[in-house]
């Protein structure tokens, strides 16, 4: 689920007859509004007063930045507030998002996961062209395809009893094959984030890209896969660093 979601908004800047619009099809130009976040994940101390996350607009035009924190399934809002929740960010500029927990019943013996989602909203087409007379004379028939990009990164709520970096205890994850299923058992209080996984050289996919704390994750093996061999996986640490682990399954 971690990644980008796109919303496409198409606007006509000059409404002419249908034949003219067909002729103007070659003048359709995409305008992406993605912003850049200052981290690949956020660690939130369970009893902390708040954390910050930088956001940068790499474009040459302003965007509206809209932010929220969602639950694990990204279906509803989590008990956090982000300030400012909506603001204008000029091209090439950076600002800070302040994330504060407002409630919620989180366990004290393991991490919990939420998602910080940040959306860059481009200006309306008429606003984008406003004040640009030179382009206005050349763009009498134009359409602008505006791509609204939402970026979501993991937010881990970490209690005081859980300290350190998950890469240091990744060896405590055990692996076994039973039939056509590979099972990963995580005996640690950390979410183990997996960036890559192979078994005997064949790439495997973990549906959620992580193994929850004190839980198992089952991964289907491809048809004809052996039940013994070499498993390699990469775990992601608190700072986005990756460390490869090798396990022999007998």
Automatic annotation (TrEMBL):
Name of this chain's protein: Molecular chaperone
Keywords noted in UniProt: Chaperone, Immunoglobulin domain, Periplasm, Signal
Entry similarity comment: Belongs to the periplasmic pilus chaperone family.
Gene Ontology annotations for the cellular component aspect, listed alphabetically: outer membrane-bounded periplasmic space
Main location: periplasm
Compartmental location: Periplasm
BP-aspect Gene Ontology terms: cell wall organization
Segments forming domain Pili assembly chaperone C-terminal: 186-241
One Pfam family of this chain: PapD_C
Record-annotated Pili assembly chaperone N-terminal domain positions: 34-162
PANTHER family: CHAPERONE PROTEIN CAF1M, PILUS ASSEMBLY CHAPERONE
Species of origin: Salmonella enterica subsp. enterica serovar Java
Residues annotated as signal peptide: 1-24
InterPro entries: Ig-like_fold, PapD-like_sf, Periplasmic_pilus_chap, Pili_assmbl_chap_C_dom_sf, Pili_assmbl_chaperone_bac, Pili_assmbl_chaperone_C, Pili_assmbl_chaperone_CS, Pili_assmbl_chaperone_N
């Amino acid at each position: 689920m971690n990644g980008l979601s796109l919303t496409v908004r198409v606007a006509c800047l000059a409404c002419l007859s249908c034949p003219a619009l067909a002729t103007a099809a070659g003048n359709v130009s995409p305008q992406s509004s993605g912003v850049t976040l200052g981290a690949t994940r956020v660690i939130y101390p369970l009893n902390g007063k708040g954390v910050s996350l930088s956001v940068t607009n790499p474009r040459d035009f302003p965007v509206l930045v809209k932010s929220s924190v969602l639950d694990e399934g990204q279906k509803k809002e989590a008990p956090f507030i982000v300030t400012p929740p909506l603001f204008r960010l000029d091209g090439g500029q950076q600002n800070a998002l302040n994330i504060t927990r407002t409630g919620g019943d989180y366990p004290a013996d393991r991490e919990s996961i939420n998602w910080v989602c940040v959306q860059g909203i481009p200006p309306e087409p008429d606003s984008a062209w406003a004040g640009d007379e030179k382009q206005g004379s050349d763009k009498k028939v134009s359409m602008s395809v505006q791509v609204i990009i939402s970026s979501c990164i993991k937010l881990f709520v970490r209690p005081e009893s859980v300290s350190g970096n998950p890469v240091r205890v990744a060896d405590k994850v055990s692996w076994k094959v039973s039939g056509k299923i590979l099972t990963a058992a995580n005996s640690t209080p950390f979410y183990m984030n997996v960036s890559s996984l192979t078994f005997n050289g064949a790439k495997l996919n973990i549906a959620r890209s992580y193994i929850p704390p004190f839980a198992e994750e089952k991964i289907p093996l491809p048809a004809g896969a052996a039940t013994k061999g070499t498993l390699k996986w990469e775990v992601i640490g608190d700072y986005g660093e990756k460390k490869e682990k090798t396990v022999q399954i007998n």
